[in-house]
Amino acid sequence: MSLAAAASPSSSRFLLPSTAARRRSLHHLLAAPAPPRPPQLRRCSPYHWMAQFWAEGSLEKNNALVEYLKQYGVVRTDKVAEVMETIDRALFVPEGFTPYTDSPMPIGYNATISAPHMHATCLELLKDYLQPGMHALDVGSGSGYLTACFAMMVGPEGRAVGIEHIPELVVASTENVERSAAAALMKDGSLSFHVSDGRLGWPDAAPYDAIHVGAAAPEIPRPLLEQLKPGGRMVIPVGTYSQDLQVIDKSADGSTSVRNDASVRYVPLTSRSAQLQDS
Ligand code: SAH
């Protein structure tokens, strides 16, 4: 496990924010009114109380996280800021973990919900391919967070499909979305999750304007390339130990161009049995 979707320090895009920026952001977060102390924690140490504070969901803290990502330079557009403010990350992070810190968190089954800066990076890369009415595929949907963001962006006339090969995660992601701002979109069918091997894509709603892969593939799976619409974009981590976040653009004539956006570290896109082997 521990194969977290964390950015490599070698990527200039992901340099840590300055100490001043971090202090400002921390100050902002801490300035949020503290929730009443739960009775069972009254006699606990300040550390336990702070852990509880960070673990509690609140839209104010979610907004503060987005503000932090703006200062960090990862959230660069209003469109991405708006969707990340609308979908509260706390609904997608298992209880007991801190949803608003910029790191991946375990969601079980050797999987993680990616770090907020990776979600923001992928949303920024794909935002022009997530216009109302467009089709988006999220391979390795895990917690369902990004699928929910995609659904909000493409709206009721579009399609957002999440593919995940662990059935329990599909159940969990469905429950997460039911409590989120994207619930109505799942009810009306424009957002759906399916248990399947994501390496095969999901032909039913193809071709896709946007394809996101949330796990690292040794090479780009051909079915995903085939299901990408001419004029569409795919964002996929490629590699095993050393991985690059690749951006693949398919032009109108069907030819493709590939560029590396950043060095990253994701869980592998693999078979279910290989993933669960050492769990
Ligand atoms: N974007 C997700 C990332 C989850 S981690 C989030 O932020 O929540 C990557 C996910 O890919 C895991 O849930 C893992 O179970 C899934 N995965 C790995 N290989 C897969 C495959 N072949 N088919 C479908 N899902 C896969």
TrEMBL record:
<dbReference type="GO" id="GO:0004719">
    <property type="term" value="F:protein-L-isoaspartate (D-aspartate) O-methyltransferase activity"/>
</dbReference>
<comment type="similarity">
    <text>Belongs to the methyltransferase superfamily. L-isoaspartyl/D-aspartyl protein methyltransferase family.</text>
</comment>
<dbReference type="InterPro" id="IPR000682">
    <property type="entry name" value="PCMT"/>
</dbReference>
<dbReference type="Pfam" id="PF01135">
    <property type="entry name" value="PCMT"/>
</dbReference>
<dbReference type="GO" id="GO:0030091">
    <property type="term" value="P:protein repair"/>
</dbReference>
<keyword id="KW-0949">S-adenosyl-L-methionine</keyword>
<dbReference type="InterPro" id="IPR029063">
    <property type="entry name" value="SAM-dependent_MTases_sf"/>
</dbReference>
<keyword id="KW-0808">Transferase</keyword>
<keyword id="KW-0489">Methyltransferase</keyword>
<dbReference type="GO" id="GO:0032259">
    <property type="term" value="P:methylation"/>
</dbReference>
<protein>
    <recommendedName>
        <fullName>Protein-L-isoaspartate O-methyltransferase</fullName>
        <ecNumber>2.1.1.77</ecNumber>
    </recommendedName>
</protein>
<dbReference type="GO" id="GO:0005737">
    <property type="term" value="C:cytoplasm"/>
</dbReference>
